[in-house]
Amino acid sequence: MPRLRLAPVRSPVLRTILLVWLIIAVSLTHYYALFAQPHSWLLPAIISRPDLVFHLVAFEALALPAFLLWRPAVAVAAGLVALAGMIELLQVAMPEREASFADLAAGGAGIALGALTAIVVLELGVRWAGAFAEAD
């Protein structure tokens, strides 16, 4: 089985868009994780732990541009897991917040989802560029 070697995005325009996306995602994640009121109003009442869904989506939104921009992927994943852990540690010191391993696990699942999405995006980009090269 061939080893998957997908290079990070090289286009300056796409890199700029991804960096802006990442800055916005980091800012929003930190704001909601540390300062905003609990986010149970964002999701229907049928979900018993809406904060887990928030962690999953927030870290997927952080992971996708990070994996598209930088290599090695293991270092990117480690940095994002450290960020998730730092948020949980900061919440320990905040009386209105509650840290949990479930939140950390949901963040890890979001990171994994972001990595898989990045692989799909990069692979589609390679195929798309190859299709245009063949047409020339």
What attributes does this structure have?
136 residues, mainly alpha, 72% helix, elongated
Count the helices. How many? 4
Tell me the helix content. over 70%
Quickly give the structural class: mainly alpha
Order of helices and strands: HHHH
Largest sheet features: none
Instruction: Determine the mean pLDDT.
Output: 84
Low-confidence segments, given as residue ranges, are none
Question: Could you provide a short overview of the structure?
Answer:
72% of the residues lie in helices and 0% in strands.
Can you put this structure into words, describing what you see?
- By secondary structure, this protein is an all-alpha fold.
- The chain has one domain.
- Helices cover 72% and strands 0% of the residues.
- It has four helices and no strands.
- Helix 2 (50-69) packs parallel to helix 4.
- The protein is elongated and about 55 Å long.
- It starts with 11 loop residues before the first helix and ends with a helix.
- The model has no long low-confidence stretch (mean pLDDT 84).
